[in-house]
Amino acid sequence: MSRSLRSGRWFDGHDVPGLLHRSALRAQGFSVSAGEGQPIIGICNSWSELVNCNVHLRALGAAVKRGVSAAGGVPLEFNTISLGEQLMKPTTMLYRNLMAMDVEECLRSYPLDAVVLLGGCDKTIPAQLLGAASADVPAIALSGGPATPAVFRERAVSVGTDLWRYTDQLRAGQITQADYDDFEAAAGPSPGHCPEMGTASTMAALLEGLGMALPGSACVPAMDARRLQVAEATGARAVAVAREALRPSAILTEDALHNAITLLMGIGGSVNAIVHLLALAGRIGVELPLRRFDEVARRTPAIVDVQPVGGHLVEQLFHGGGIPAVLAELRPLLREDALTITGHTLGAALRPKRPDAAVIRSLQDPVRPAGGVAVLHGSLAPDGAVIKPSVAEPALLEHEGKALVFEDIDDVAARVDDPDLAAEPGTVMVLRNTGPRGGPGMPEWGQLPIPQKLLRAGVRDMLRISDARMSGTAFGAVVLHVAPEAAVGGPLGLVRDGDRIAVSVRERRIDLLVDEEELGCRRQSWRPPPAAYRRGYGALYLEHVLQADQGCDFDFLRGRSAHPESEPRGVLRGMIGGW
Question: What CATH number belongs to 374-525?
Answer without folding.
Answer: 3.50.30.80
